[in-house]
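Practice problem: predict the structure.
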Amino acid sequence: MINHAVAPAFMLNGVAAMVAVLVNRISTVTERIRNLREIDEADLVRARLKQEIGELRRRELLLNSALHLAVLAGIGVTLLLLFGFVVAFLGYRHEPGAAVLFIASLCFLAGSLFRFLQDIRLAQGEHKDRQLM
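Answer:
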């Protein structure tokens, strides 16, 4: 079982790194929303910046979705490792159940990466719009 635990352990490390990146991006987007909300409506020069809030909210939702999926992937990998060791300790074959958990975890991770890609595309669109102004 130790030999079979190497790939899930590496995957768990990757998922943890992904979670850290997502949390950082969510914090940045949330802070930007807070800053925009503090702009006084009387400040005509900066008040137009508040239009970005809708786009930032969409990014925040995508990032939260990506974070949830990444955490589910991490939980799946953790359960995979636990399941594998417990079943191997009991003397049963762990491969069929481990394969199902690994596939499910990879699907969650793929979903998280897809949501992350959607956020990246939205963020790039924001930068392009700002360059045109």
